[in-house]
Amino acid sequence: MRIPDRMEAAVLTGHGGLDRLSYRRDVPVPRPGPGEVLIQVGAAGVNNTDINTRIAWYSKQVTSATSEDVTAGSTAEASADGSWSGAAMIFPRIQGADCCGEIVAVGEGVETARLGERVLVRALQPSADDPFACITFGSECDGAFGQYTKTAAAHALRIDCDWSDIELASMPCAFSTAEGMLQRAAIGAERVLVTGASGGVGSAAVQLAKRRGAEVIAVCGRDKAGAVAGLGADLVLERGADPVASLASESIDAVVDLVGGPAWPRLLDLLRRGGRYVTAGAIAGPIVELDLRTLYLKDLSLLGSTWQPFEIMTNLIGYIERGEIRPVVAKTYPLHEIVQAQQTFLEKHFVGKLVLIPPKA
Asked: How far is residue 355's CA from residue 361's CA, in Å, rounded to a whole number?
C-alpha cells in the first residue's frame, strides 16, 4: 500500500488544559527505522496517563486528585518533572498508550512477512539494560493518537481473534497494568479487594483476579455496581462507604488499589496479618497517611507496580485469543473529538474504556 507523507493526529503541545491538545492534518507520517515497524492505527484507547501527563500530575509539585483542575501543571517547577518517569516531557508529543492496528511497513532487519499483521502494541516497554527501566508508549515516544505510529518490532505483538479494533484497543494499557499488579502481588485463589473497579484498570483487575480464582470485592460508585458485578465481582461496595464496617478488619488477603486519597488508611485495616497491598494509581490523591505500626505489626507488604516483564503482554494476548477475558468499551469517539473524550473521561460516568478512532488513511 502507498504510505502518505502526512497524517491527521492529536498533538500535545505542552502541559496544561485541554487547549494544549491540537488536532492537526499536516503531521509527518513516521518512518520505521532499523528494527521498527510502521502501524496504521485502527483504534486507540484513552487512559489516565494521558490526562496525568497533560496536566503534569506526575510532578512532585502536584498533590491533588487527577480529576481536579491542576493549575500547578503549568508551572516551570512542575514541567521539570511532569512525566511519569520524573523527567521533563518533550513536546510536541503524540500521546496514546493503547494501539491496535496493522503493520504496513517494516524497517531494516524486520521480516517483510510481518506486513499485514494485526497487532497490539506493548504499552509499557521494558529496557533490556535495567531490570526496572521502561518507557510508556505515547509518553517517551509518540503513540497511537494519529493515523500511523511506529514502534520496535518486538513490541508489536500479533493477535488473531474476531474482536474489533475498538475492542482490542481497550486492552493493552489497562489490562497489562492490572495483570502486572496481580503478578507483583502474587494474587491467587484468595479474598481480594479492588478499588476504582469501574475504571479501565479496575474493571480489568476484577476480570483477571476472577480468572486466577479469587473472591473479588469491588469498590465503585453505586450507579456502576450492576455493571461491575457483571464482570464477575462477588460483592460490590459503594465508593465512599467505610469498607471495614462492611467487611470487618483483617478480612482481606490482598488489596489492588487505583485510588489512594484520604480513605487510604482503611485499606490497610482491612488486610489480614501478612497481607499484601499493591498500587498502580492514585486518582483520589497521591498523598496518604501511613501509621507505620499498622505496617510492621501486621507484617504487611506494600508494593508498587509500573514496570512489566515481557510475558505480561504475551500472556494477555493468550487470554484474549482463548476467550478468557472480555473488553469493556463504554463509548467511542472519532480522533478529532479527543477533547470531548477527555472531558467525558474526567467525569467518570461510565464503566470500562473510552476509545478513539482515527480516520482511515
From this structure: 18
Radius of gyration of the chain measured on its C-alpha atoms? 20
Residue-level pLDDT at 341: 98
d(CA 232, CA 217): 10
In sequence order, which residues have a C-beta less than 8 Å from that of residue 82 and are 6 or more positions away?
A: 15, 53, 56, 58, 59, 73, 88, 89
Q: Which residues pair with 124 in a beta bridge?
A: 136
Separation CA 59–CA 74 (nearest Å): 11
- DSSP 8-state symbol, 84: T
pLDDT bracket for residue 73 (50, 70, 90) = low
The pTM (predicted TM-score) of the whole model is 0.95
* Nearest partner of 67 among 256, 358, 342, 352, judged by Cα: 342
Phi-psi region of 188 (alpha: psi -120 to 50; beta: other; left: phi over 0): beta
Closest CA to 277 of 252, 243, 302: 302
pLDDT in tens, 228-243: 999 999 999 999 999 9
Q: Which helix (H) or strand (E) holds 237?
A: strand 235-238
C-alpha–C-alpha distance, residues 83 and 68, integer Å: 18
The predicted-structure confidence for 349-360, as pLDDT tens digits, reads as follows 999 999 999 999
For the stretch 105-123, pLDDT in tens is 999 999 999 999 999 999 9
Only one residue has cell 498502580, namely 280
C-alpha cell at 115: 506486513
End-to-end CA distance of the chain: 11
| Cα–Cα distances in angstroms (integers) from residue 272 to residues 191, 208, 219, 237, in the given order | 10, 22, 18, 19
Strands 353-357 and 235-238: unpaired
Contact 316, 175 (CB under 8 A): yes
CA distances from 17 to 56, 149, 339, 342, 343 (A): 10, 25, 10, 11, 11
